[in-house]
Every structure is written in C-alpha cells, then in structure tokens.
Specification:
single chain, mainly beta, 5-stranded mixed β-sheet, 1 helix
Amino acid sequence: MIVGCTQDMTRQELKDFCTFSATNEQEHPMLASRQVGTDHFVYPKWLETNQDLLGIFGNADPLDRRQWVKIESALDDTPSSNFTIKNRSFVETENRCVGMPSRLRYEILWTYVGNVDKPQAKILRCVCIVYVCYFICQLVV
C-alpha cells in the first residue's frame, strides 16, 4: 500500500523549511526534531509516528506483550543503527530542498503458520525506514 500527499508552500516557505536549524529555541510549525546520537535529526511533522509495536496476528491481545513485535527504526540509538544524518540545503537555482527526509517505509517480514488447510499470517519483524529525497518548488502561474 502506498499513501502520499502534497504540501503547498511558497518559495520562501520552502527555503525556511529546508534551512531551519534544530538548535534554535524557536519551533518550526511543520518540523519536528529528535536527538540521534550527538546530532539533531530534523524531519517533517507529518512523518512523526508514536507507533512502536505491531501485533503479530490481526487479533493480537493488547495486554499480552508476547503477541506484539517492536517496530525497529534506523533512528533508534543502537549500535546496529547505521543511520546518518544528511545535511540539508536549499538550492537557489533549482528551487529545491536537498537532504530533507520525505518518506517513511515499513518493511514487514511475515509467514504463514498453523494448519496447512487454514494458515494464518504471522508478522515476524517490522522495520521503519526513513528516505531522504528532494522537495521541489514548482511555481504555479
């Protein structure tokens, strides 16, 4: 399943969005920040998620922790995390923002378990991946 959206911004709003620094005391209305190691990771608020568990079956008991798997994320501050924070910049000549996270992708590893005649899908692992792409300002006349 793929879901998407568009965000209308003026050229100046895109530039401010792209060059905002997380070290400022002020907050940007469309950006969130999180500490990753010693750096601040700045990302659009619409990519923010509080979901950290996924039921292994469709009818997982919310009170039984064994029926849930942790959603792994590259943003987790763990030794196995190979996430690096990219520098963001605004390219004036091309009206685009480079290095800003723009997509989340969930990779779900699953298998069928149980009776051969009526197998059930079981989730084994879930990983959340952050993608960095371009934000481009298209001038509408």
